[in-house]
Write a structure and sequence with these properties.
Shape of chain A: elongated
Largest interface: A-B, 19 and 24 residues
Mean pLDDT of chain A: 81
Largest sheet of chain A: 2 strands, antiparallel
Mean pLDDT of chain B: 83
Radius of gyration of chain A: 15 Å
Number of strands of chain A: 2
Distance between the termini of chain B: 45 Å
Low-confidence stretches of chain A: 1-7
Radius of gyration of chain B: 37 Å
Strand content of chain A: 5-15%
Structural class of chain A: alpha+beta
Helix content of chain A: 55-70%
Shape of chain B: globular
Strand order of the largest sheet of chain A: 1-2
Oligomer: heterodimer
Chain lengths: 109, 872
């Protein structure tokens, strides 16, 4: 059973999972993807990227395999597992519920 | 095809991967920087590294994740295991208790046999050290004559060096009331060859080892502590040894052990005089030890010594040459002496017991699995892989095993203490057995091994899908495994019991052995005189005469005699049979072996109650006569004279002019312990003014006085003549009984283990039967409903148990036949294939089996079909 950490690492998890859901990728590619899709608003802290990737892999939410990229370079490509997809859906639900609730609160005050 | 299971290969790859992954990340970022920002390659790389931060830190954090992973799993498994234990405390307690007993016993036994069999000797590279010499009927251990030693030392090629010592002796330490201590004279290179460094001071120099050299001594650790309180100022002090001043130049280390495993308090220089040793009639006896050259084995060394051995044989009288052999054996073997087989046997027996403990626990845990099958099936369904379940199960058994093992280590202290109390002193060198770090390490390794052994069986048992429904099935394979476990237990129990019976029967035969004299109400007092003080024969003689008159006049003594040695302790003098010359008869054949002889006072035969079957014994009148009469033992008389009448025959004992007349024939007496047949022997009368008794004698008293009373009297008399001469007073029947102490001890040990094994087997069988009945309630209910009577059902259960017991017993008998012949040299008067010793255990186990199955059978018989069928 994956541990539920505090929200911040949950964000990183979410970013990684969503990015990989878009298509299998390696660590560096995930960094670039997040940066570009969020228009530069979100930066992935590279020092914490790999620990997070390993954590996700340990919890069997993603699967990593060594492959050769087009540039003839060896890189570890991660893809989403079924459990990972389920977890992603769960997190997304939580997030939208959370943001809806926060919005309501803000409007109220 | 995978060489390793995936989880293992993944683990192994992981840490190599991380480095590579981070490298590849950095390279990709550098390339991208080059392309996107137009940075030159080095700048791009530097930038990439800067952004990433320390790769080392990243690696560490990644590693932490995985360690946390591992620790996390362990914590989770442990927590789960503890919850399981709390739910079923009785099973866990049973497992821990059984384990504690098994490991405790094994640890105690290991601490005893380790110093003998396995522990490195307290010498430098002790496995290279050998004891060498000639073995012959004169002495139980190998020895060398001085001249042989000197020649061999000069001409040998297989050894790095030889050293020697004189056979151990006694000496008196101190002045007014001297302390009798163990003294051993050693060559100056003795300690260096063994590789032993003195704790204090130094070893002897060549100067001190020369004849008439300066008097130096080394003290043992124990003596140094007790005499000088462990002070370094003891070095250089002078003390009195045998009325001579000597200087203390060194102290031996605390763990020092003589290569012949004898006690030692003081080491003195050997001061071997070459001229004296080479003299034609020299009687210089030495014990020799050597260090093998690198790469030379004991066999090769022995081969190399053969020519020197042949040379040494030339100086041995022809008749004896056949009885002399060359001996080269490791010092370890020399130290273990006769205890080797006994030690291995104890170790083997305790291993069998431990095996029984493990099978018992495995069976218990298997039953547990059946109970928890529901829960396990649930976990499997939720995605726990087989590996996960196995790991969980092993964690549980390791926890149980280590707890039981820890308790067992604590218990082993107690076990060892009781073993030391029960055992004859000095047996198996029990004084050296300690539970130290090495032994505890062994205990932990053993616990882990046992835990894995009994844990792997239930672990491999995967839960069935039907268990999810809460169906309490039996699992055919599981039952078969439990059946075989119980059968194995029964077999092992049969083997242990058979061994115990063999030893017990052998011991009984031993105890019934007749010794040839009457030991009850017979007390012996051994006196060892100081050889230096009584070097003058006249003085020695006068002392013995005085001693005789004083001791014989002690009130309450029915009969008194003096002798130089006393059976059955051995140590009597011997001479070759062919040395005897019979007047008017042809010379005796050379292959006659040895003849024992003994000097006694006239009342010896009456005191010892040795029957005189022909002629008469000695009288006081004989003692004044010109020549000493002889009494032969029956076997000697038969050997020499066969059908002739020995009385009145004239015999010369040593080939010179003194002749003696045979006055009588006495019954045979066992001289060397209870198991060795009586040797032919003759008795010579101790004449007045003769020097036949050496510096040691034994006074014998036939009396109804208590041991303590007589002891005080004897000590008083002896000390008034010569204070400081120790007197050892023992009751004769005690002596004989103590000769049987080693076999008694072994018998007791095997008996205890066999009883424990029987208990385990009985409990195991009962548990299995009870479990079968409980889990097959529905089937039994069906049978009952279909018309089976109560008796039918009970008989069914009993038959099932009977088949198991039968299988186990057959296996056990086969096992016994194979194993007992290994210990046949420890048995006396009984064959290792003795049918009673095999049959009785089989019978006992059958009865135990029936009893164990009785209650479950009754329970089964009482099952009400209606209630049984309602159980789902």
């Amino acid at each position: 059973m994956p541990k539920r950490n505090d929200n911040l690492s949950g964000v990183l998890e979410l970013l990684i999972l969503k990015s990989i859901a878009h298509g299998p990728n390696h660590g560096f590619g995930i960094t670039l993807h997040v940066q570009s899709v969020s228009d530069g608003l979100l930066h992935v802290e590279e020092g914490s990227l790999y620990p997070a990737l390993h954590r996700l892999e340990r919890d069997k939410l993603i699967k990593g395999e060594w492959k050769v990229t087009e540039k003839a370079r060896r890189a570890r490509i991660y893809s989403l597992t079924r459990a990972g997809a389920a977890r992603l859906a769960e997190i997304e639900n939580n997030w939208s519920a959370l943001s809806k609730g926060v919005q309501k609160l803000l409007r109220f005050a | 095809m995978r060489l390793l299971p995936r989880w293992l290969s993944d683990r192994l790859h992981r840490s190599w991967d991380w480095q590579a992954e981070i490298q590849s990340h950095l390279q990709m970022r550098a390339e991208w920087s080059e392309q996107a920002n137009g940075l030159p390659p080095e700048a791009a790389e530097a930038d990439a590294r800067r952004r990433f931060g320390s790769p080392l830190r990243a690696l560490e954090r990644a590693r932490e994740v995985h360690i946390a992973n591992w620790i996390d799993d362990l914590a989770r498994d442990t927590g789960h295991a503890l919850r399981v234990f709390r739910r079923a405390p009785s099973v866990s307690l049973a497992v821990i208790a059984t384990m504690a007993v098994g490991i405790g016993a094994a640890t105690a036994v290991f601490s005893i046999v380790d110093p003998l069999l396995f522990r490195p000797l307290p010498y430098l590279q002790g496995e290279q050290l050998v004891s060498l010499g000639l073995s012959g009927p004169i002495d139980a251990n190998e020895f060398l004559m001085g001249v042989n030693y000197l020649d061999w030392r000069k001409d040998q090629s297989a050894f790095q060096g030889l050293t020697s010592m004189r056979p151990a002796g006694h000496c008196d330490l101190g002045e007014r009331i001297p302390l009798r201590v163990h003294c051993i004279a050693v060559e100056s290179n003795f300690l260096p060859l063994l590789g032993v460094k003195p704790l204090l001071g130094r070893t002897f120099t060549r100067e001190e080892d020369r004849p008439h050299g300066p008097n130096a001594v080394m003290l043992s650790y124990g003596l140094w502590r007790s005499m000088f309180g462990g002070q370094a100022s003891a070095l250089g002090k002078t003390v009195n040894l045998d009325d001579q001043p000597v200087r203390i130049i060194g102290v031996l280390p605390a763990d020092f052990l003589m290569p012949q495993a004898g006690e030692v308090d003081v080491l003195t220089p050997e001061q071997l005089d070459e001229a004296v040793a080479r003299a034609p009639d020299a009687t210089v006896f030495l014990r020799a030890f050597a260090r093998l050259k690198w790469g030379i084995s004991i066999e090769q060394a022995k081969e190399g010594l053969k020519p020197l051995f042949q040379q040494a044989l030339q100086s041995v009288p022809k008749e004896l040459r056949k009885e002399i052999h060359l001996v080269v054996r490791s010092v370890r073997d020399r130290q273990i002496y006769q205890a080797k087989l006994g030690s291995w046997m104890l170790l083997g027996v305790v291993c069998l017991l431990l095996l029984m403990v493990c099978t018992n626990i495995a069976s218990l845990l298997l039953a547990e699995v059946a109970v928890r099958e529901n829960e396990l099936a649930m976990r499997a369904a939720l995605g726990a892989g087989r590996g996960r379940l196995i790991r969980q199960s092993l964690t549980e058994s390791l926890l149980l095993g280590l707890t039981g093992g820890a308790l067992g280590c604590a218990a082993s202290y107690g076990f060892l203490k009781s073993l030391v109390l029960l055992a004859p002193s000095g047996f198996l060198r029990l004084g050296e057995a300690h539970i130290d770090g090495r032994v505890l390490l062994f205990a932990s390794a053993l616990s882990i091994l046992c835990a894995i052994l009994f844990g792997v069986v239930p672990a491999l048992d995967s839960p069935r899908p039907e268990a999810l429904k809460g169906e309490r099935g039996i699992g055919l394979r599981r039952t078969q495994v439990r059946n075989s476990l119980v059968a194995v237990q029964i077999g092992l129990s049969v083997v242990l019991l058979a061994g115990a019976m063999l030893f017990a029967r052998s011991f009984r035969v031993l105890e019934l052995q007749a010794v040839g004299f009457r030991p009850d109400h017979l007390i012996s007092a051994s006196i060892v005189l100081n050889s230096r003080r009584y070097a003058d024969p006249a003085r020695l003689n006068a002392l013995y005469d005085e001693l005789e008159s004083r001791l014989s006049s002690i009130a309450g003594v029915t009969s008194f005699a003096l002798s130089d040695t006393v059976p059955p302790a051995g140590g009597a003098h011997g001479r070759p049979f062919s040395n005897l010359l019979i007047a008017g008869h042809p010379p005796l054949p050379p292959e006659g072996g040895m003849v024992t002889f003994r000097y006694v006072t006239p009342s010896y035969f009456r005191t010892m109650d040795v029957p005189l079957i022909a002629g008469r014994g000695f009288t006081e009148a004989d003692r004044a006569g010109p020549e000493a009469p002889l009494v032969l033992s029956r076997s000697l008389a038969n050997k020499i004279f066969r059908k002739e009448n020995p009385i009145g025959q004239r015999i010369s004992l040593d080939g010179n002019e003194t002749w003696s007349t045979v006055t009588g024939v006495a019954g045979d007496v066992k001289n060397n312990g209870v198991t060795v047949a009586a040797e032919p022997e003759y008795y010579k009368l101790r004449m007045r003014k003769s020097t036949q008794l050496g510096h040691a004698a034994v006074a014998l008293f036939r009396t109804s006085l208590s041991l303590a009373t007589l002891r005080t009297q004897v000590e008083k008399q002896v000390s008034s003549l010569d204070p400081g001469t120790p007197v050892e007073v023992t009751a004769m029947d005690e002596r004989i009984r103590s000769l049987n102490d080693p076999p008694r001890f072994l018998t007791m040990m095997v008996g205890i283990f066999a009883a424990a094994g029987l208990l385990l087997a009985g409990v195991g069988l009962y548990g299995l039967m009870a479990f079968l009945v409980a889990s097959r309630t529905r089937e039994i209910g069906v049978r009952a409903a279909l018309g089976a009577t109560r008796r039918d059902i009970a008989v069914l259960i009993q038959k099932r148990a009977g088949m198991l017991v039968g299988l186990g017993v057959l296996t056990g008998i086969a096992g016994s036949l194979m194993l007992t012949h290994l210990v046949r040299t420890l048995l006396f008067g009984i064959s290792p294939y003795d049918p009673i010793s095999l049959g009785v255990p089989a019978l006992v186990l059958t009865v135990v089996g029936l009893v164990a199955a009785w209650r479950p059978a009754r329970v089964a018989a009482k099952i009400d079909p209606a209630t049984a069928l309602r159980v789902t």
